[in-house]
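Re: the 533-residue chain
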Amino acid sequence: MQTYGIEKLGITGPKSIYRNLTPAQLTEAALRRGEGKLSKKGALVVTTGKYTGRSPKDKFIVDTDGIHNEIAWGKVNRPISKEKFDSIKGKIINYLNSQEEVFIFDGFAGADKTYTQKFRVINEMASQNLFIHQLLIRPTADELANYGEADYTIYCAPGFKCNPEVDGVNSEACIAIDYEAHEIIICGSQYSGEIKKSVFATMNYVMTKKNVLPMHCSANMDPETHETAVFFGLSGTGKTTLSADPNRKLIGDDEHGWSPDGVFNFEGGCYAKCIHLTEENEPEIYNAIKFGSLVENVVMDEETREFDFEDDSLTENTRVGYPIDYINNAEIPSKGGIPKVVIFLTADAFGVLPPISRLDKNAAMYHFVTGFTSKLAGTERGITEPQPTFSTLFGEPFMPMDASVYAQMLGEKLEKYGTKVYLVNTGWAGGSAASGAKRMKLAYTRAMVTAALNGSFDSIEFKHHDVFNVDYPTSCPNVPAEMLDARGMWADKAAYDEQANKLAQMFADNFASKYPNMPAEIVNAGPRATANV
């Protein structure tokens, strides 16, 4: 039996060790092992049990002398001792040794070979090995034959459950990274997003050492000019939808690096939400759910094997993972040029931010660090008005270092390359979501994004919004002028002023609390609560 070198890692017990099986082989293995079922179009469908999303309280970073002063310790980046990590890792290895089969995927993160990192993923489950096979960059036969040692090794055993009292963790699940040892452990949770995001969190540390800004964003480019744009945004802001433009080439939907040579995708696949998915609204994602895809927690009819994308009885966080070449207009290899435009997306349920506004360098750094969006009233019991969400760098759970490290890198790149930055509000207009106002029409948002990308705003007059301290255009092709004036769309101007000042104060309070040491020029570029709107 070939061991593919994992005996060096202590894994010698399984009767069968499989390396880089094809999607067909992995799907067949998962079905044989009872891990899932096939949909009508051949996608592998699994349920992940107790954990249907990431488990942030179970995520840790090994606190060693070599990295201690580089990590932004706190509620997001929780420390675990080297001794506890090694103890849990040893137990996971013993658990994997008790299995009949183990599945290995040797792949890459980083489409630009100058910065590529090799990840070896050791899985208990064939279905999870299929997932990471499709999400990372797949090596060619020659690359696999000459793969050598991995830069990072991930041990993934959802069947192993921690004992919190003994193992020093919070629950049966543990997701931990040892940056110095180049090792990652994932146990207790079958949610495959933990593997993907552990790779991302690793790249977000490693790339900063190589003068690459890691970004939680999507990216696309003009197929003729190769002019590139990146889109930042939290869940529900339209990041995937707006970047999947049929008139542009998709570089990637979630994780990228910005190097001195341009933008490159960290991944070789996509991990899209499926809730309320329709072929009409998101045909690229809808048609990517086929043989070779892994579908998580989507309810499927047992007889017809058709999906009910409206059913959230298992979770609202229904997902599908698939290789990027399942998207017809994907750019492969997934690389683009220096970004001409950066777009920050927010879904403002307060209904007061301008639909699109232009940011200077300091304002861009402010909003990059802030990472604002909001959730609707009624999503949780007792919530009667919109709730702000501030996620540092539009990806706080995955950024191990202080926000200033990433913000400084962004600011330097914006200044060096003259990249334009826009804040686009895909949320509500003419009133708050709680008041019954409607969300901005997707067609209008697309037209604004198009104008930002093609330079149409360069010759258009802008006005200054005193509360939010941004400039917004007075006109835009294919958008009624009145739709660009956030205050003008409100019938009750006093109510707008009250809500705008309230949100501006939320921005200020969040920034003062989380980033007390930011330079004054960045602080002063943010919103200003004022009675004069």
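Confidence is low (pLDDT under 50) at residues 377-383.
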